Structure formats: C-alpha cells, structure tokens
Amino acid sequence: MKRIVVSLLCIALLLGSLNACVIVPGSREESTTPDPTTVPTTTTAPPTTQLVTTRPPVTTPFVYTGPAVYRALLREYHEAVYNALRGNGRKRDTEVNTLVFEISYWESLNDVPPGAEMFGYAIEDINHDGVDELVIMSKNYNIVGLYAVVKNQATVVELFTNRFKCKILADGTIYIAASSGAMDNENARCILRKDALYVLDAISSQSGVKDEANGVVFHKTVEDKKKKITEEQYEKALKDYPSWGYVPERKTTTCYGTNPAKESGLRFIPIIAP
C-alpha cells in the first residue's frame, strides 16, 4: 500500500493535518530547526538557563574509525562540543550547534550540568538495508539527530529539537512525538526509507476546533487513511506509543527502559574520547 512520506516539521506545525504534509519521494525539502518554544508530549520542561558549563579536559584529538561519509560531520560535532564546554557556541545558529544545544538542554535536568562524556553518537544500520545511519545522541539516549547516506553524502533525515522526541528500536521502528501545546499533540510510528521517514500510523489531538467537545478533535491515521476518533479511543490508542518523561532515579528525560542499548540496537560512542 502507498506509504505517506511526512516531514516532521509539518507534524508539529500542522497537527491534525497529516495529509497536508505529504511529500512525493525524491522531492523532499530540507528540514529546518523549529522554534523551540514547546515541550514534547508528556515531558517536563527542563530549565532553559542551565546548559553546558563543565569545562572539558585537555583537548583530545578527533578519533573516528567509522564510515568515511560521516567523518566531516562528526569532526565538526567534536569541535562544537568543545566550544560549548568552554562557554562558546551555545546557540542554534548552525546545524551542529543545534545538536549540541539540544543535548545540553535535555541533559540539564541532571543534578550537575552535562560534561564531555554526555555527548556522542551511534553508527548503525537502522532500517537493515545494508547502509549505516548516523544517530546523534546523549549518553542517556536522548536522540537529537538522524542522518542517512544519499548519493555518497551525509544527509539529515531529521533534527529532533525540544519540540520533537525520537525513539528508535532495534527492529527499525522509529517513534516520533511532537507537541505545540497541552492539547496539540502528535504521536507517529515510522520507518526509515533512504532519507525520509514514512508514517505507518499516527494519532493526534488538535485544540481550538469549533463545534467539538471542549474544542478538541482527535484523529487516527493508518497508512494514508485518516479518520476522526473519540477522546476515549485516542486515550486507548495512546498506550501503543512511547511516553517521554523525567525519570527521577535516573535523573534524565528518557523514553527507554533500563537497557536502552539493547532496546534501541544503538551503541553509544562518546564524541570526545575518555
């Protein structure tokens, strides 16, 4: 059956309007970083002022033995982490700085600001097509970026800012949660094909709708078919998707259990060698 290729930026900006976000394969527009003003579904907002402040150890050289196509990007990431740890470059002015900022943002929930050991990545064949993808993430498996190889180039699939959350499973399933308000939420189950995420199914809630109870409408989408559902059906379906929240005993925001490496199939590699 026909799959829907969805830009996740559209998910957050046009909640409840999946059909408006369909992009024809081969014509996918480049992703842009959304305005970081809201919090992912069920996630407690971390403080916006406590970012990376821990100074790094003596600068260590960039060490990388993975696919050459990701070398330049990871070298830039390595430099951006050092800049942030020294108090510079804590902005979303470039793609790599955005990745560093987002890891800082979520990991600032810890009792101490995150240091160099918290920043890293994983190289895995997520969709099992014989080509490795690059995942930028924290040691606590907060995923902030997903890259794929297209025409021998490292290509961004999506950046997951504080508006988005991403959970990758070892079987290739990718869950996405997006929120732009208390009652404006989207949860989707996706798979990766080349450099695009295909939505298999999704549920959404949208507020500010006239002639609806409490002004909220709920939808469920399977493949390319979207239908209206009741709030009770929405709440029941929501249990099939991951929840994101702050785990006090682990002092982090996460969607994974106690063994995220096994659950995700991703092996965390620190960008700065210990």
What does this entry show, briefly?
The chain is α+β, with helices and mostly antiparallel strands and 274 residues long.
Task: Please characterize this protein's 3D structure.
By secondary structure, this protein is α+β, with helices and mostly antiparallel strands. The chain has one domain. 17% of the residues lie in helices and 30% in strands. It contains 5 helices and 14 strands. The chain has helices at 8-13, 71-85, 95-107, 231-238, 260-264; strands at residues 4-5, 119-124, 133-138, 143-150, 153-159, 164-168, 174-181, 184-193, 196-206, 217-222, 225-229, 245-247, 252-254, 269-270. Strands 1, 6, 7, 8, 9, 10 and 11 form a 7-stranded antiparallel β-sheet that branches. Strand 12 (245-247) and strand 13 (252-254) form a beta hairpin. It is globular, with a radius of gyration of 18 Å. 40% of the residues are buried. Residues 1-53 have low confidence and may be disordered.
Topology:
Elements lengths: L3 E2 L2 H6 L57 H15 L9 H13 L11 E6 L8 E6 L4 E8 L2 E7 L4 E5 L5 E8 L2 E10 L2 E11 L10 E6 L2 E5 L1 H8 L6 E3 L4 E3 L5 H5 L4 E2 L4
Antiparallel strand pairs: 1-9, 2-3, 2-14, 3-4, 4-5, 6-7, 7-8, 8-9, 9-10, 10-11, 12-13
Helix pairs in contact: 2-3
